[in-house]
Amino acid sequence: MSMTSQLRRFDYLTWPKAKEAANREGSTLVWPLGACEQHGPHLPLATDNLFAERITKKVLERLPENKPIWMLPSQLLGFSPEHESFPGTISLSAKLLLDLVMEVGKQASSIGFHRLLLFNAHGGQIGLLQAAARQLRVQSPTMAVLPCFLWSGISSLQELLPLEERQVGLHAGLAETSLMLSLAPDLVGQERPCDGEHFSKEALATPPKGWSLEGAAPWAWLTKDLSDSGVIGDSRASTKSLGKELEEVLVDHWVNLLTSLLESEWPPVEGSQL
Q1: CATH number of domain containing 245
Q2: Phi-psi map region of 142: left, alpha, beta (phi>0 left; psi -120 to 50 alpha)
């Protein structure tokens, strides 16, 4: 771990340093959130957590040391009921994860932090964390809450990933397998599955017009509805070089967003000096 990473770890601070950090103008906590869930026969259960934690560290290492931002310990267990039919998945209930966010957020606010960024890498809990953020904002009105998803809002992904993978490569496909080959290649198995709705389940291959797995008119699918391997997508073309490109795009995107956030007085909250 680099010296910069150590300086950014909230749990490595002493209590006087934690108080000092929270009292700084624009003080921000980033909380990486992942999941412990099946990722096919070739990726580890901790895939989402590893992505959230390692991308967060790389982003924070790129920010100037004087910026008031620190990282909470990552949250490994998440809300993953869609994957429960596959061994290895350990899923918290929606209520438990909601309560966890509320408890941690309440205490971060009471210490004095101005912002809490929920940096999530598990697509199955995006909506839940958005609801938790809104409820936390009501409970702790002096702290801004920003629920973010690792892969969201990055237009340059269309230059790196084919259209079909962007639309239906939802889990352990080309993007996740390649990124893991870049970040932790020793955790990637030899298999390169191709599975999921558009690949192996012909009866489900064409949803009615206007409907889809995700998007404006989604379906609350379970992985077993779509896949025998646990993969939803095509990992066959995955490479370390593609993963490195994805890593660079992700880090650059979040460095830019956090830099603009830390240099701003946004968002406004009750009683804030921002």
Answers
A1: 3.40.50.10310
A2: alpha
